[in-house]
């Protein structure tokens, strides 16, 4: 195979060039206004450790390994919430996995973006959150 190998930094740069990323404050505002759907792709262990987006924002929890199937237009595993007329904001812990995920959704025709610096930025921005002890208790 003579193809040029890419680094993960290259993959991220290519993915992020296909859409406009947004900061946590803007993401929280768009979700609160009902303009966008927030999709949290973090594994359960991260949600348990770091907390979750507050339930009043109705985040959709989707495992990263099935995300594309849940948004595929006309696909048999597509979720009813996957309305292509509504923007999708993908959230991971630090903003790396969400960039690759958002890129794939864009390729499927979804108006998708992700949160710069992920859930860590979400918390730092004071966006609605439940801490892990609030979720467990």
Characterization of the model:
The strands form 2 sheets. The chain has a 4-stranded parallel β-sheet with strand order 3-1-4-5, with helices on both faces. A two-stranded antiparallel sheet has the order 2-6. The chain is globular. Helix 5 (97-107) links the parallel strand 4 (87-91) and strand 5 (112-114). The mean pLDDT is 94. The termini are far apart. The chain is α/β, with parallel strands linked by helices and 137 residues long. It has 7 helices and 6 strands; from the N terminus they run H-H-E-H-E-E-H-E-H-E-H-E-H.
Write the layout of secondary structure elements.
Elements: H1 8-16, H2 24-32, E1 36-40, H3 44-50, E2 52-53, E3 60-61, H4 67-71, E4 87-91, H5 97-107, E5 112-114, H6 118-124, E6 129-130, H7 132-136
Helix pairs in contact: 1-5
Protein name: Rhodanese domain-containing protein
Pfam families: Rhodanese
InterPro entries: Rhodanese-like_dom, Rhodanese-like_dom_sf
């Amino acid at each position: 195979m003579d193809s040029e190998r890419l680094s993960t930094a290259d993959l991220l740069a290519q993915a992020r060039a296909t859409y406009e990323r947004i900061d946590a404050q803007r993401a929280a505002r768009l979700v609160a206004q009902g303009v966008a759907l927030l999709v949290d792709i973090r594994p359960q262990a991260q949600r348990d450790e770091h907390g979750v987006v507050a339930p009043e924002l109705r985040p959709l929890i989707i495992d990263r390994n099935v995300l594309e199937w849940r948004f595929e237009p006309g696909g048999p595993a597509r979720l009813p919430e996957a309305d292509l007329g509504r923007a999708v904001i993908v959230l991971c812990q630090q903003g790396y996995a969400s960039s690759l995920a958002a890129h794939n959704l864009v390729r499927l025709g979804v108006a998708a973006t992700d949160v710069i610096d992920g859930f860590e930025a979400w918390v730092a921005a004071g966006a609605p959150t439940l801490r892990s002890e609030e979720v467990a208790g």
